[in-house]
Specification:
The protein has a ten-stranded mixed beta sheet, with helices on one face. By secondary structure, the protein is an alpha/beta fold. About 35% of the residues are buried. The protein starts with a helix and ends with a strand. The protein is about 15% helix and about 15% strand. Helix 3 (about 185-190) links the parallel strand 10 (about 175) and strand 11. It has helices spanning about 5-15, 20-25, 185-190, 235-245, 270-275, 300-310, and strands spanning about 35, 40, 60-65, 85, 105, 115, 130, 140, 155, 175, 200, 220-225, 230, 255-260, 280, 290, 310-314. The structure holds 2-acetamido-2-deoxy-beta-D-glucopyranose (2 copies). One 2-acetamido-2-deoxy-beta-D-glucopyranose (NAG) binds near residues 265, 266 and 269. One 2-acetamido-2-deoxy-beta-D-glucopyranose binds next to loops.
Length: about 325
């Protein structure tokens, strides 16, 4: 965590002898706290409405978290070595313009940003971490994030997105889209996420997952799909099968909201037949027979069906 050092800094300052503190604090903007003056500058919770004038241009890490900034457009442009910047917990109404291209970590959580335009991040090709959690983002223009070839960690948790951002950068390893109202995973957006390891899309408005949605994510090791609006009907069999082939630990908590008679059931507690009765044709007397396998029923699911003893394959 990029700012985990901060607590350490405060700890050092609060326990170190006053003389050392004085040394550490020298050449620091008034009220701010600096470690290695000129490299890490912390101006947090000071009620600031603008950037202090005296932040050294050589600063490589700057936190202005928990202030009352409304606009910092172009104010940081000349900080050509700035790598880590926190503007979290402020009142920014839009993505700041004119940030230095040297940035690697940018924290903008808990602001009031409503949309991301395609030009806003164009020049930030060195970003590896971008946190936009708890804003009011309703729209991200297609390809707004596409040029961020080094972006590994992206959080858009707690916004107002209704669809996956289009053209996410293939470098992403961690993507948090939880607590939005995304209603569909579109295959084109999913297909670029070849390096994704952790995917959080819990607490959204998903009703199903399209066929093959997770097939192009070879490195995926954790997915959180809980608290969505799962419709436990035939269309959910792709997800059901995908979970059954070894990913059970990732998502045992998927609760059906529909159809009515399966509401509140756990998806993985249900049999294939309960989920999708129409894949079976009643057969006189004994066990039902599988008539036609929908394309989504591949070998694994057939094996699941057979071993459950529910059906006899033709
Ligand atoms: C981006 O990162 C590379 C490699 O770390 C570095 O050489 C380059 O100077 C950085 N770009 C900027 C604008 O700081
Ligand atoms: C799921 O199945 C287990 C074991 O059969 C059972 O104990 C549990 O109550 C079921 N849970 C739901 C929500 O259906």
């Amino acid at each position: 965590m990029p700012w985990s050092g901060c607590c350490g800094v405060f700890l050092v300052l609060s326990v170190c002898p006053p003389v050392v503190c004085l040394l550490l604090m020298s050449s620091c903007p008034p009220g701010c706290c600096c470690l290695h003056p000129g490299s890490l500058v912390l101006c947090e919770s000071l009620g600031l409405r603008s950037l202090p004038g005296s932040v050294p241009l050589t600063t490589s890490g700057l936190s202005m978290a928990r202030n009352q900034l409304c606009n910092v457009d172009h104010l940081l442009r000349s900080f050509s070595g700035l790598q880590e910047l926190s503007l979290s917990h402020n009142q920014l109404a839009r993505f700041p313009r004119g940030l230095p291209p040297s940035l690697q970590t940018l924290q903008l959580q808990e602001n009031r940003i409503t949309y991301i335009t395609s030009g806003a991040l164009q020049h930030l090709g060195n970003l590896t971490h971008l946190d936009l959690e708890d804003n009011r983002i309703r729209a991200i223009q297609p390809a707004a994030l596409w040029g961020l070839n080094r972006l590994q960690v992206l959080s858009l948790k707690g916004n107002q997105l209704t669809s996956l951002p289009a053209k996410l950068p293939p470098s992403l390893a961690y993507l948090d889209l939880s607590a939005n109202c995304i209603s569909a995973l579109d295959l084109l957006s999913m297909s670029s996420l070849v390096n994704l390891q952790i995917f959080k899309i819990n607490s959204n408005c998903l009703r199903s997952v399209p066929e093959s949605a997770f097939d192009g994510l070879p490195r995926l090791r954790s997915v959180d799909l809980g608290n969505n609006l799962w419709v436990c009907e035939c269309d959910i069999l792709y997800l059901y099968r995908w979970l059954l082939i070894g990913r059970l630990k990732m998502a045992t908590d998927l609760v059906c909201t529909e159809p009515f008679h399966l509401a509140h059931h756990l998806l993985l507690n249900l049999s294939v037949v309960a989920i999708c009765p129409r894949i079976l044709k009643p057969n006189e007397g004994n066990k039902p027979e599988l008539t036609s396998l929908p394309s989504r029923l591949d070998k694994t699911l057939v094996e699941v069906l057979e071993s459950s003893g529910d059906v006899v394959l033709e």
